């Protein structure tokens, strides 16, 4: 290389064009013009978006197969419960728009905080749970027909049948005399038979599945006139450690039922109505 070449500053190796570095530089230049407030807002929005996309997981240690319950729900207050339920809704509704998803979210105000009950939420403890959480449970007025003060929602007909038996035997032990408990599920019962029974008899407690309860509401056979509480049998898990919120085919009809206008309406209708057991 000649001295003239050296003086001209001709490089021995040409510099490669770094597109990544250039894009980063442009990003820095764009950010340099942003105010501290806008940067902070952007970071907050990004964190919020990540939080939305993340599905809350249950600790494996909370799944007690011996008792057949998910003990995580014992520790969830209203806000944590709403976050968890709505995260599952978001998981199962990936094809929905953000507006459509929000219409399927259970409002926090509708969920009663039941964390004061610290015992395992087993089938045998359901009556005691109701007694502790509700204090004074009064019988439905004699003139009422098909209008229970308490509904219990279970995942399947078999589970609902077990809940029915548990309430029939457990409630009297808690001082609730002669409770009228109705079978509102499909196992061994036709819907026409249930419609007739609801029109003729008073009901204190109704035990059913999401689809059958929705059908009875659609036919105006089941009334919410006296309804004080809706208990969701959420802690129960099957042999595969799955509960009513862990399967799309169970979760979606449950959410549709809970968000019906008979339960959750405008204003404060439905406040603290739902109790997740």
Can you walk me through this structure?
- By secondary structure, the chain is α/β, with parallel strands linked by helices.
- The chain has a single domain (67-136, 143-276), classed as 3-Layer(aba) Sandwich (Rossmann fold), CATH 3.40.50.300.
- The protein has 10 helices and 7 strands.
- It has a 5-stranded parallel β-sheet, with helices on both faces. The protein has a two-stranded antiparallel sheet with strand order 1-2.
- InterPro entries: Cms1, P-loop_NTPase.
List key phrases describing it.
Rossmann fold, globular, 10 helices, alpha/beta, 277 residues, disordered N terminus, five-stranded parallel beta sheet, two-stranded antiparallel ribbon, single chain, 7 strands
